[in-house]
Automatic annotation (TrEMBL):
Pfam families: DDE_3
InterPro entries on file: RNaseH_sf (IPR036397), Tc1-like_DDE_dom (IPR038717), Transposase-MT_Hybrid (IPR052709)
GO molecular function: nucleic acid binding
Record protein name field: Mariner Mos1 transposase
Residue ranges of domain Tc1-like transposase DDE in the record: 19-111
PANTHER family: MARINER MOS1 TRANSPOSASE-LIKE PROTEIN
Length: 150
């Protein structure tokens, strides 16, 4: 699952097909979809500037992806290697999702995707704002620990 959000709401949720992995070409397509989602949901964000935080996985740092981000004129925040403490999805979103899904039974992948989408849509605006606000303190902790886990 790829999930992008800002301080107000989800911007894009995408699911990979079973047994596939993301590569640079797939991530470029995701970024194109994200740009379309931003244009639809937050058009002023494209003119005011987009700041993107993603980790240093190879698909995110491939030259083709860097070129796409430069063409979009999006700022990419530096992400220290091996720092899951800086991913709002990791420290704020996925934990509550995992707890909420515990005990549910699904018969198809589509049912799982629908459940996740509905769960994300049900979150109040404050949930997303809290995740972005928490990123600031996580960033400070990471900086003060020189990139070590905390």
């Amino acid at each position: 699952m790829s999930f992008f959000f800002d301080h107000k709401s989800p911007l894009l949720v995408e699911f990979l097909e079973r047994r596939t992995t993301i590569n640079a070409q797939g991530y470029q397509a995701t970024l194109q979809n994200l740009k379309r989602a931003i244009k639809s949901k937050r058009p002023s964000m494209l003119s005011n500037g987009v700041s993107l935080l993603h980790d240093n996985a190879h698909p995110h740092t491939a030259n083709a992806v860097k070129t796409t981000l430069q063409q979009f004129r999006w700022e990419t925040l530096e992400h220290p290697p091996y720092s899951p403490d800086l991913s709002p999805c990791d420290f704020h979103v996925f934990g509550p999702l995992k707890q909420a899904i515990r005990g549910h039974r699904f018969t198809t992948d589509d049912e799982v995707c629908d459940w996740v989408q509905a769960s994300i849509r049900q979150q109040p605006t404050s949930f997303f704002k809290d995740g972005i606000d928490r990123l600031v303190s996580q960033w400070d902790k990471c900086t003060n620990s020189f990139g070590d886990y905390f």
